User: Fold Ribonuclease HII from Acidothermus cellulolyticus.
Amino acid sequence: MGASTTARLGPARVRSERRSCAAERHRLVDLYRYERRLARLGLEPVAGVDEAGRGACAGPLVVAAVILGSDRRNRIAGLADSKQLTPAARESIYNEIISRALAWSVVVIPSSEVDELGVHAANITGMRRAVAGLAVRPAYVLTDGFSIAGLNAPGLAVCKGDEAVACIAAASVVAKVTRDRLMVELHEKFPMYEFATHKGYVTAGHRAALARHGPCPEHRRSFVTVRRAGGRMELRITELADSDDSPGFASGPAEAVPGPAGSAGAASAAARPAAAGPAGRLVDQNRAADLRDNGDVSRPAELLEIP
Assistant:
């Protein structure tokens, strides 16, 4: 900033903006530290994988994999976990990622497949597909919270990786923006549920819509909120059929809409959480049985531990 800028904004404002710019530079340097460390170990390019819609009771599960360039001049300003960004910022950063990434891949798993596989299995399946769909084969894969078995590349899970690793943050943005756009399209098809507002997650308004209209084909029957709404709707129809005012309905016992075999609702379908740890520290693969290396990792996890 030159003298004219200082005169226009004032010294205090200029100092504040300089501090803000410096803080953002340091944040980005820190966000890319995993890619730098892996590059020093000869492991590049690095893919980051994350999903959107895991906890929603309607709509698809979307998984993205992204490989960013390692050149510091190619860093994406403002990149962060999608949950920390405004919708407008996500859209802007999404466009930057798509235009500047070495490779990216998106997998959309419909609600019917989520019900069939279960949320956790669908998530892992989507991660495998997303990595396999990359045009550039990664030398290493970093995931947010869950490791992926069966890849051709070694990989590790990072606690809160979408907050701590650039390529995972990029994947979180791509997955989130893609899914939000799909939910807006579903809103046009099923406007009574207001999917464009809550994006398929459980809210008071979404519960009220389910109570009024029952589930639509985009709702996940494996989630207890949806099953209960479906059961109430079946009961209401049966009560109408049994009443004298509705002779046109066939009578019969009330039946709740079942979920898929073996499902126990959203609580049990939710995936096991990653081992506890501060954001940006790799999960200890020896202490977390289901968060372990793929078996073909030639370097121990400790090599990537960063204080």
